[in-house]
Amino acid sequence: MAAMNVTRRNFLSGAALMSAAIAGAGLAGCAPQTTAPAPSAAGEADTLATTGGTAGFDGTGELPWLGEAPTIDDGQVEEELTADVVVVGLGAAGVPAARAAAEAGAKVVCLESSPKLNSVASDMAIFGGQTQAQWGRGDGFLDKKMVVNMHMEECSHHVSQSIISRYYDESGAALDWFVAASKNLYMAPESYAEIPAEGQANYMFPYMYPVPETYDYTTEDLPCYPTSVGFSSLATVMEDNLQAAVDAGAEVRYNTKGVKLIQDEAGAIAGIYAQAAGSEGYIKITAPSVILATGDYLANEDMMKFYAPECIENGIGILSLDLDESGAFTNIGEGHKMGAWIGGAIEQWHAPMIHHMGGGAGPDGRGVIGNNGYLWLNLRGKRFMNEDLPGQQLENQVELQPQRKAYQFFDASWPEQLAYFPAAHGVACIYRDEPLPEYTASGLRINVRTPADIEAAVEEGRCLKADTIDGLLAMIEGMDTETAKASIERYNELARAGEDTDFFKSSQRLFPLENGPFYAAECGCALTLGNLGGLESDEDCHVYNTDRELISGLYVAGATQGGRFAVQYPISLKGLSAGMCMVYGKIAGENAAAGK
Question: Is 586 a member of any domain?
Answer without folding.
Answer: yes
